[in-house]
Specification:
single chain, alpha+beta, DNA Primase, Chain A, DNA primase DNAg catalytic core, N-terminal domain, Dna Topoisomerase Vi A Subunit, Chain: A, domain 2, 5 domains, four-stranded antiparallel β-sheet, 24 helices, 52% helix, globular
């Protein structure tokens, strides 16, 4: 990531705490830093740390870290120029055209891919209103979608021909190589290529900034398979990290803290058309921990309503368990009449639909209600089997108070002793597969004294002025030598931003640099100077002892080496007297 006067001006004008808090509302002060659960990985204990003085963030759990630009890049999936442009608007700074700034090859490719996807969305949308799109328009009409809704979600039509989309884009200067990387075309035998989507209603999939990053396509031919087809994974798109409709739903979700998780494209679009504009959906995949991490950033009240069939109910329960793994509480709702959400809204309207949402139950009640609906008078054996199954949900609940309430509720509903349920719960918890411990990267070989001194300099770069007695060779660790030399080489005006500068200069060591910079050392700031001065003396002493050991190991010493040996012995004796 390049730096420039404009980038530095944006960095100075913006408060990293305010920017991060837009995405992580739970960010709270903890000493000199701010902490929250990490938005980049699933965790129950906060390890995501932001240091407002250094304007950097670091997660001790997943080792993600960087400056304000890196945070926005990672959280929104943006290139560096895009993140700068977004933050420039917030800072009131004129950024200008990306071409006026240095752009890495990776960033240029991402920008080109986004422009290509925008052009493809426009092609599909235009095709929907062409003579060839008549059947698609009739289908959307049958689903009672208004023209306003079709325009809002930029729905389209992929012609049934083999390469109509690619031919038009190539005529406008786009390359087939880029289209292949974007998942818009597919290679066939003999090196031929064809449009990936053919004869399908097209649903542009947007990121939270509103940029088209992928497509979903629904086939109209009853014999066509698969019924729904999504873009492949690309540099812009990952199904595990994307929720359909999030861009359109975010304003309402942010205002109310409510989020409705539905099953598919048409459910979300129909909900928005009826004013239920806080609805989103996963993309043909089970809810993932990445999805729950995104939802956790914005919503306090989440309701899951998947289709009212066996597969939908099973998916709802599985989604609830995934939410629980993320430490989130959700409720499950059901329409209980065989209709999909968009069909129900068309038949009964928003008011009745919202009543169903209001009646949503927690995951355990939801499953118990289903059981007693199907078996109003269960036998003892059926009760035992059902309790064993339900306890798997209870065992996954991380909140001990809620778990205790669930045990009481389960015992009451089934008319059994609470102690029996607790004993069975212990057996169930032991039988559940345990999550493998996170593999930690092997620690970098750096003596604690050297690591501690580098940390002092990163925390308070003004102490670099006191390091004149040290040389890089006084450090035994090659990495400590490298970092110390880089810190000393920084011009005085750049030293306040030393952690970000070193993380950018040495990306392979950025995690260590950022971790050292944000770790709270404790103790008063006034002691830092004394600690640094003491560390310099100790490092010089250890360096002298190492060199003496090397000299003693020589078969013989020349006059120059003898002189060095005598000098080092005097220095060591002098340092002992000074202590």
């Amino acid at each position: 990531m390049a730096s420039s006067p404009i980038v530095e001006l944006i960095r100075e004008k913006l408060d990293i705490i305010e920017i991060v808090r837009e995405y992580v509302p739970s960010l709270k002060r903890a000493g000199r830093n701010y902490k929250a659960n990490c938005p980049f990985h699933n965790e129950k204990t906060p390890s995501f740390t932001v240091n407002p003085d250094k304007k950097i963030f670091f997660c001790f759990g997943c080792s993600s870290g960087g400056d304000i630009f890196k945070f926005v890049m990672d959280i929104e999936g943006l290139s560096f120029p895009e993140a700068v442009r977004k933050l420039a608007l917030k800072a009131g700074v004129e950024y200008g055209d990306e071409r006026a700034h240095h752009i890495s090859p990776e960033d240029k490719e991402r920008l080109d891919l986004k422009k290509l996807m925008t052009a493809a969305a426009a092609f599909y949308h235009k095709a929907l209103f062409s003579p060839a799109g008549e059947k698609a328009r009739l289908y959307l009409g049958e689903r009672r979608l208004s023209k306003t809704t079709v325009e809002k979600f930029e729905l389209g039509w992929a012609p049934a021909g083999g390469s109509a989309m690619m031919e038009e884009l190539q005529a406008k200067g786009w390359s087939s190589d880029l289209a292949l990387k974007a998942g818009l075309i597919t290679e066939r035998e003999g090196g031929r290529v064809a449009d990936t989507f053919r004869g399908r209603i097209m649903f542009p999939i947007r990121n939270q900034s509103g940029e088209t990053i992928a497509f979903g396509g629904r086939v109209l031919d009853p014999e066509g398979i698969p019924k729904y087809l999504n873009s492949p994974e690309t540099p812009l798109f990952s199904k595990r990290k994307t929720l359909y409709g999030l861009h359109e739903a975010l304003p309402q979700i942010r205002r109310t803290g409510r989020l409705l998780l539905l099953e598919g494209y048409m459910d979300v679009i129909g909900a928005h058309q009826h004013g239920v504009d806080w609805a989103v959906a996963p993309l043909g995949t089970n809810l993932t921990l990445e999805h729950s991490g995104i939802i956790r950033r914005y919503a306090k009240d989440t309701v899951v309503m998947f289709d009212d069939d066996r597969a939908g109910i099973q998916a709802s329960v599985k989604a609830a368990e995934t939410f629980m793994e993320s430490g989130l509480y959700v409720r499950l709702a059901s329409l209980d009449n065989g209709l999909d959400p968009d069909e129900y809204l068309n038949e009964h309207g928003r008011e009745e639909f919202e009543k169903k949402l209001a009646a949503a139950a927690d995951p355990l009640d939801f499953r118990m209600n289903l059981f007693f609906k199907n078996k109003p008078s269960p036998t003892a054996q059926e009760k035992a089997q059902a309790i064993a199954l339900l306890l798997e949900t209870v065992a996954r609940q991380g909140d001990e108070i809620l778990k205790s309430e669930w045990v009481k509720n389960l015992a009451t509903r089934f008319g059994v002793e609470q102690d029996s349920v607790l004993k069975q719960l212990r057996k169930t918890a032991l039988a559940l597969p345990r999550e493998a411990p996170r593999k930690q990267a092997p620690p970098l070989a750096m003596p604690q004294m050297e690591k501690g001194y580098i940390q002092l300099l990163l925390r308070d770069p003004a102490l670099i002025e006191q390091s004149s007695a040290l040389e890089p060779e006084d450090f035994s660790s090659p990495l400590a030598r490298t970092l110390f030399a880089a810190l000393r080489a920084l011009p005085p005006e750049a030293r306040p931003k030393a952690p970000a500068a070193l993380a950018q200069q040495y990306p392979e060591h950025s995690s260590l640099v950022l971790e050292l910079a944000v770790t709270d050392l404790g103790g008063p700031d006034a002691s830092a100077g004394r600690d640094a001065a003491g560390a310099v003396r100790m490092l010089k002493r250890f360096s002298a002892e190492r060199r003496l050991k090397e000299l003693k190991a020589l078969p013989s010493m020349d006059p120059q080496q003898l002189q060095e040996y005598s000098r080092l012995m005097l220095e060591l004796k002098s340092s002992v007297k000074d202590r």
